[in-house]
Write a structure and sequence with these properties.
- By secondary structure, this protein is α+β, with helices and mostly antiparallel strands.
- The chain has one domain: 2-Layer Sandwich (Alpha-D-Glucose-1,6-Bisphosphate, Chain A, domain 4).
- 24% of the residues lie in helices and 42% in strands.
- The chain is built from three helices and seven strands.
- The model has no long low-confidence stretch (mean pLDDT 94).
Length: 146
């Protein structure tokens, strides 16, 4: 993790797949269900309306309970960039305001460098927790597309 401020984080990973494949994994519910939760045993229910202003929702049912993330797409530039809001639905998990996730997909030979910036956390501990979650998710994505 590279912390830009106490309330922002950046995670970078090189994935052994072309940008189109990585972008699809990030935006198609059937592929998202295979990597977009830190807990690999979780059951996911994902809805995506992939258009600017469209909403997404990721419900993660895990042994310790359900966490549901959601937001709206602000920018979609296939296969190079996604920008969307992010918050949790459940009381006790909400951050109080939408945070913003920006994901850039850059071709590097036959691979893709993914740079994820998640900004606007209400506190440093929220950024640190999300860093752990995003890192685990990117581990799953890397295995999926290997």
């Amino acid at each position: 993790m590279t912390v830009d401020t106490a309330r922002d984080l950046t995670v970078t990973r090189t994935i052994a797949a072309p940008p189109d494949a990585v972008f699809d994994a990030w935006t198609r519910p059937e592929l998202m269900a295979r990597w977009s939760c830190p807990d690999p045993a979780a059951e996911l229910d994902i809805d995506v309306d992939l258009r600017v202003g469209g909403a997404y929702r990721i419900a993660m049912r895990m042994a310790e309970g359900t966490w549901t993330a959601g937001g709206t797409y602000r920018e979609i530039v296939r296969p190079r960039r996604l920008v969307y809001t992010w918050d949790w639905e459940e009381d006790g998990h909400r951050m109080g305001a939408d945070t913003v996730v920006t994901v850039e997909f850059e071709a590097v030979g036959d691979a893709t460098q993914v740079t994820l910036k998640h900004t606007g956390f209400p506190a440093a501990d929220a950024a640190q927790g999300h860093d752990q979650g995003w890192t685990a998710c990117l581990d799953h994505l890397e295995r999926l597309l290997a």
